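Standup notes
- DV: blocked on the single-chain target, sequence here:
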Amino acid sequence: MSKAEIGTFIRQKRENLKISQEAVAYHLEMSQAAYSKIERNETKVKVDQVYKIAEYFGVSIYELLPPSLASDIMGENVFGLAYHYIVVGIKKIKLIFRLTKNKFDRSIKRK
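- DV (later): unblocked, structure below
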């Protein structure tokens, strides 16, 4: 996948997560039509938009970008890549813990 296909990769990730274009566009404070152009590679995605999209999807920018581009950014640095996956893993564990705690708290309140 080339760097010109970032929008396609973002679209695939969004569809895998079952998130609507409207929801992402709202988060980016733009119209659905404008966001659609990003996914169709008709408009270049801005760096701040990549960060916002990744945040909304609950992934790092490295998971959002095509592997070839992500490795360019990481510089094929093994330690940087390992650090990235450790940070992502910790974030996922925190999310699971928070969701489990909220579910537990709700069940306690019902009793």
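- Follow-up: Residues 104 and 110 are 10 Å apart (CA to CA).
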